[in-house]
Backbone:
């Protein structure tokens, strides 16, 4: 059986973290293809050929009308000449064992397309990523802590330092009931600054830095694991770089192998 | 069924508690404004973003659109038919962009609508606007104040009053040019007539220049050639092309001028045969010879393309460019700055045959003081507002393009309150060969197609004065201001990279200043001519005349030369990537710049005369002797003085400012602008890897010090070069002269921004002295780059940085920015500035002189006196060689260069950055407070493991002064605490931007 795990790293239309994201998956042993978003919409790069689809960070469609909004509207509404929407196609592909990852803008797209948390499988909009509170775009490193969830992405990781680089990362749920239902679907939380002082850098509900769907195969997170693949990228690298985020990618590659074996 | 609406309005308001910080800040500003104008302090204000769509929309589609676009949790949406409902409030301010300006939000709404309604292409007629509504009736004065706080009439149409019955209709758009060509018979005009013509059309051409054009067009041979093209007297387009091509911006006439100098500094009269030739190109050519002799052949392109090009490894070239965007940023800070950074990006990518991928941006910004208290002159924006807008523009320009902003600088001086200086830098990596050809060469042959790619053409950037002769859509922008669209440009660049990699682009040029006239005109010099049709150029506003189409500076466009056989493949790729292409003509070899609008001849200019015919300027300058006066009496208490200097706007932390810029997208930034566990330690350079995970990296740093030029312009020129170079030396770079590797490029860009330096008895009586300063700054720079053996590969000059308003003139101080980039063979080993461990031994490297003139210390204390620092070039070069050895042997745990505030500030920054103190002893010979704050150049403070202290002393000898050890929670000198690290931090981290905690 073919054991190569194939990853599509989606870029184009303002997504812009394809370079480091591709390096991250390649480092975890996957066969990576950087795919223009248009080729995903058009079907020129079929989902059937991928085990993992990664929507990278950036500013899709300039984040006009809200972060990730226009991309998400296209996923939900563009009928693609009668082939149906990409959101529906992705949902079916995930049901068949695909893993969908969104980082930063990718996370914003997945939430606003209804693919996260997608509690009932109906793509209902149950959460959003609102403007940071307190304010504005910020690029800073934060210490994050994994929490139990259906996603295997952070297995074996203790605390991990990651850069956050966003202006709209405040996870909000539609209502208390949804928040309750998502309590076990938050695989990563903001813990502190790098000196250890407690920190919730964007006002996210419960300090949530990530969200997964009930299957564990759709995962979104605001901080950038692809930006911390080796110690030299840490801002305090000469003293205390700590563990890198490389296991995030190998965990998901391993999960893809297991899913493939089941299929 | 369709609604009966003329246009529909989808009004979107932030849900309670979910508004963004920009809205919160704007709300505060608006309330302050109306209360200041007499409104009750209890007044409340709400803001809606309005998405306005075309008439005739189906109600069901409209509801679907609203459901899709409005965030159900963070936003509240409402469809307004006809008018804003009375429930909104009692008084309103309605803000919309002028027609023809880029409206990304409106375009996005049109795209979204198309997907929702099943249309094949983005729906036209969408626009994004804003409505602010107050819960109480307000006086016209209060509403005017609110409008001023919200909008900028250079870019916005503003209506205010009692709540509107209908929102203002939007102008309809018709997309054909007018084809009208005006003839301007120069032949009959005398000097006065020529002067009047130049003024009326805002040509900026002198009488001498117009005389030269007049003589050329009267030549019978020229007349015959023109007749053959159906042209007689000069057309409006031709005159505009001369104005663009002969502008200071394009031809650098003042940097090419012959200058007669009355030199008080060195005595006597002398001549300078062109600033560019003598102080920029000359040194660079000499240095290229030296590099070649040493086998360091990494210089690829200097001065001849949009950006300088150096080779950085076996496969990659690096393009480097720094631009300024000062005047536009004075009028519309956000639009000016974002357009500046995106324009510089186009230079870095639009070099050779394109195909570059942006590697980093830099930003160096000079503003009036944020606490500016003088009454504002007509047309002058408050420096704090300029800073806020520029900051947001720079952030969006880089962040939305996915380009890390690696570094910059921020300076304040009241002389920048008329015009800010906004320096935007960019570098791109380009594979050395693309499609089997060297990527840095432009291949333009007769028969190749002229293709424009990217945004459409509007009136953007067409000089405002000519507008009075046009019928304009009501309220249309004078065209002087543009708003860049990072989204359009990112799509264009992604497309270009693919196209160039496939070998489909023969040459590329940025369409920026001068528009098609410049970008196609420059490419046509390579083939020897061009013929194009302005009627084929895609437009975004109606009725443009051919000359407007030809010189418009609408953004996000590139001009390409394309081999005819490649055109179908290029078109197909563009269609897949949602990039608009237009084939507008053909390159020729007939020596003519030939423009048609359909069948109408518009322009037929001899390219030789166009590019070589400009008469050389002759200017006169007076060089004054440097000002040297005794130091003023200084206070004696180091602690409070240090805290005061740390809080000075030129010295204090820019961390919060810098964190709004993404400095590590692409995951390659190994030295970030602020490092250390707390992210508080300012760094001397930004360093980024060439490739993800690779060791090979590029560092970038800056030098800028306009205040020294007040005393000694020559010293300033030297010092700016030294500052840029020592930042890179500090983190681990090696000068070429010290045996850097054969591909370890080390090169720079020069950017001059000066006040009007051409003497005029009325308008500019001290022009000679200003030009004298410029001459000495350039000579200081030239001597320094020669000594360091580092070539300048690109640059730009901006000559008229003055605001004349209300009977006053505010002129910038003559300013030079030098940006340096260097290859670091192992970026993982770069050394950051903050202390690393208790017990490490601290050394001062370099010699401290009595150089306090215009220092941060004296500026903080409001004192004058002293001398400006000069660079001891030979000693500096030798020292930098030893620093490279210290890095190579891994001796340094931290290194920080000394600049504003000298040793005292550098030590404080090392302490603050690490959260660790230092215990120091004043060395013998160090006298008084001045020693701690002297700004002598070419110095570093380093810390080393105790075991390496002897190695440092052996390597540097008398150049190393042992100061003490890292440790504790305070800065302690001679047994007495100067200040706790926490006190230093609080002084240093004072807020710079409104709204910063």
Residues:
């Amino acid at each position: 059986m073919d054991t190569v795990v194939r990853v599509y790293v989606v870029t184009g239309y303002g997504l812009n973290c394809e370079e480091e994201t591709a390096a991250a998956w390649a480092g975890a042993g996957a066969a990576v293809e950087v795919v223009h978003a248009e080729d995903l919409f058009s079907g020129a790069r079929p989902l059937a050929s991928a085990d993992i689809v990664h929507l990278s960070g950036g500013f899709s469609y300039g984040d006009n009308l809200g972060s990730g909004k226009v991309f998400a509207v296209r996923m939900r509404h563009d009928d693609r000449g009668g082939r149906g929407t990409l959101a529906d196609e992705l949902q079916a592909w995930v049901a068949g064992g695909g893993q969908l990852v969104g980082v930063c803008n990718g996370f914003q797209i997945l939430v606003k397309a209804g693919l996260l948390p997608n509690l009932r499988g109906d793509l209902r909009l149950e959460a959003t990523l609102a403007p940071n509170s307190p304010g504005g775009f910020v690029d800073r490193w934060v210490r994050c802590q994994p929490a139990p969830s259906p996603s295997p992405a952070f297995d074996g990781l203790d605390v991990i330092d990651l850069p956050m680089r966003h202006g709209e990362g405040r996870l909000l749920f539609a209502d208390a009931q949804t928040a309750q239902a998502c309590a076990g679907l938050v695989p990563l939380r903001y813990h502190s600054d790098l000196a250890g002082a407690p920190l919730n850098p964007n006002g996210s509900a419960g300090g949530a830095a990530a969200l997964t769907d009930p299957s564990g195969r759709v995962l979104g997170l605001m901080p950038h694991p692809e930006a911390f693949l080796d110690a030299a990228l840490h801002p305090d690298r000469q003293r205390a770089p700590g563990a890198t985020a490389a296991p995030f990618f190998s965990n998901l590659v391993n999960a893809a192998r297991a899913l493939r074996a089941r299929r | 069924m369709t609604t009966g609406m003329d246009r529909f309005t989808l009004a979107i308001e932030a849900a309670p508690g979910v508004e963004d910080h920009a809205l919160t800040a704007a709300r505060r500003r608006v309330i302050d404004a109306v209360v200041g104008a007499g409104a009750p302090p209890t007044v409340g204000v709400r803001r809606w973003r309005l998405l306005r769509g075309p008439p005739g929309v189906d109600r069901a589609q409209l509801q679907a659109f609203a459901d899709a676009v409005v965030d159900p949790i963070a936003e509240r949406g409402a469809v307004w038919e006809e008018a804003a409902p009375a429930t909104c409030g009692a008084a309103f301010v309605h803000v919309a962009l002028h027609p023809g300006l880029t409206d990304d939000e409106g375009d996005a709404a049109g795209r979204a609508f198309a997907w929702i309604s099943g249309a094949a292409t983005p729906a036209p007629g969408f626009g994004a606007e804003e409505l602010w509504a107050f819960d109480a009736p307000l006086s016209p004065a209060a509403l005017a104040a609110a409008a001023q706080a919200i909008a900028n009439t250079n870019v916005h149409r503003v209506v205010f009053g009692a709540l509107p019955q209908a929102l203002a209709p939007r102008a309809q758009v018709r997309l054909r040019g007018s084809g009208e060509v005006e003839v301007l018979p120069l032949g009959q005009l005398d000097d006065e007539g020529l002067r009047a013509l130049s003024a009326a059309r805002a040509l900026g051409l002198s009488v001498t220049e117009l005389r030269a054009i007049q003589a050329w067009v009267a030549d019978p041979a020229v007349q015959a050639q023109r007749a053959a093209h159906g042209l007689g007297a000069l057309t409006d387009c031709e005159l505009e092309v001369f104005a663009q091509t002969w502008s200071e911006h394009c031809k650098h006439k003042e940097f090419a001028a012959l200058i007669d100098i009355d030199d008080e500094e060195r005595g006597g009269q002398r001549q300078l045969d062109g600033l560019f030739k003598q102080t920029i190109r000359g040194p660079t050519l000499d240095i290229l010879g030296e590099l070649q002799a040493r086998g360091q052949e990494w210089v690829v392109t200097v001065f001849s393309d949009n950006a300088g090009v150096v080779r950085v490894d076996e496969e990659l070239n690096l393009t480097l460019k720094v631009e300024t965007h000062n005047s536009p940023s004075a009028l519309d800070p956000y639009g000016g700055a974002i357009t500046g950074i995106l324009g510089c990006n186009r230079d870095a990518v639009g070099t050779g045959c394109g195909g570059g991928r942006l590697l980093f941006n830099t930003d160096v910004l000079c503003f009036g003081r944020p606490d500016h208290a003088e009454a504002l002159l007509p047309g002058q924006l408050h420096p704090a507002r300029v800073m806020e807008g520029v900051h947001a523009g720079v952030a969006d320009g880089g962040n939305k393009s996915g380009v890390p902003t690696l570094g910059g600088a921020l300076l304040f001086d009241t002389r920048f309150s008329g015009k800010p200086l906004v320096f935007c830098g960019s570098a791109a990596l380009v594979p050395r060969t693309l499609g089997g050809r060297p990527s840095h060469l432009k291949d333009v042959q007769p028969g190749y197609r002229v293709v424009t790619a990217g945004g459409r053409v509007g009136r953007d950037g067409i000089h405002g004065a000519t507008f009075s002769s046009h019928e304009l859509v009501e309220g249309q922008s004078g065209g002087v201001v543009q708003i860049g669209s990072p989204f359009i440009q990112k799509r264009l660049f992604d497309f270009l990279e693919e196209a160039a990699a496939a070998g489909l682009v023969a040459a590329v040029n940025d369409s920026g200043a001068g528009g098609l006239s410049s970008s196609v005109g420059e490419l046509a010099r390579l083939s020897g001519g061009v013929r194009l049709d302005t009627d084929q150029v895609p437009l975004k506003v109606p009725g443009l005349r051919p000359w407007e189409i030809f010189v418009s500076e609408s953004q996000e466009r590139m001009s390409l030369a394309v081999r005819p056989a490649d055109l179908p493949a290029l078109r197909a790729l563009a269609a897949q990537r949602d990039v608009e292409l237009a084939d507008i003509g053909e390159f020729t070899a007939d020596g003519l710049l030939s423009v048609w609008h359909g069948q109408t001849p518009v322009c037929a200019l001899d390219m030789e005369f166009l590019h070589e015919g400009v008469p050389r300027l002759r200017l006169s300058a007076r060089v004054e002797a440097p000002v040297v006066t005794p130091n003023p009496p200084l206070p004696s208490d180091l602690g409070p003085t240090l805290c005061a200097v740390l809080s000075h706007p030129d010295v204090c932390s820019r961390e919060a400012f810098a964190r709004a810029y993404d400095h590590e997208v692409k995951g390659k930034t190994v030295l970030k602008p602020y490092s250390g566990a707390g992210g508080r330690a300012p760094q001397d350079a930004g360093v980024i890897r060439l490739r993800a995970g690779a060791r090979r990296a590029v560092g970038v740093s800056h030098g800028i010090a306009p205040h020294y030029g007040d005393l000694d312009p020559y010293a300033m020129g030297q010092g700016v070069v030294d500052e840029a170079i020592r930042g890179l030396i500090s983190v681990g770079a090696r000068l070429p002269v010290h045996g850097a590797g054969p591909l370890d490029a080390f090169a720079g860009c020069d950017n001059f921004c000066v006040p009007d330096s051409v003497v005029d008895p009325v308008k500019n009586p001290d022009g000679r002295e200003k030009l004298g300063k410029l001459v000495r700054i350039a000579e200081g720079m030239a001597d320094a780059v020669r000594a360091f053996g580092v070539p300048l590969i690109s640059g730009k000059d901006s000559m008229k940085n003055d605001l004349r308003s209300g009977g006053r003139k505010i002129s910038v101080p003559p300013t030079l920015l030098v940006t340096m980039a260097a290859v670091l063979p192992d970026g993982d080993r770069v050394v950051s500035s903050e202390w690393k461990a208790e017990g490490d031994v601290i050394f001062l490297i370099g010699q401290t002189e009595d150089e306090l003139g215009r220092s941060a210390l004296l500026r903080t204390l409001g004192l004058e006196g002293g001398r400006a620092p000069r660079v001891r070039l030979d000693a500096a070069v030798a020292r930098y060689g030893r620093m490279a050895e210290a890095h190579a042997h891994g001796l340094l745990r931290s290194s920080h260069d000394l600049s504003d505030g000298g040793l005292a500030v550098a030590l404080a920054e090392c302490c603050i950055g690490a959260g660790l103190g230092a215990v120091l002893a004043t060395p013998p010979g160090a006298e008084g407070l001045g020693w701690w704050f002297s700004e002598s150049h070419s110095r570093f403070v380093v810390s080393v493991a105790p075991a390496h202290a002897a190695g440092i002393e052996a390597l540097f000898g008398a150049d190393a002064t042992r100061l003490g050890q890292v440790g504790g929670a305070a800065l302690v000198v001679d047994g007495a605490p100067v200040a706790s690290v926490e006190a230093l931090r609080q002084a240093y981290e004072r807020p710079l931007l409104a709204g910063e905690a």
Observations:
- Confidence is low (pLDDT under 50) at residues 170-174, 464-478 of chain B.
- Chain B touches chain A through 69 residues (CB under 8 Å).
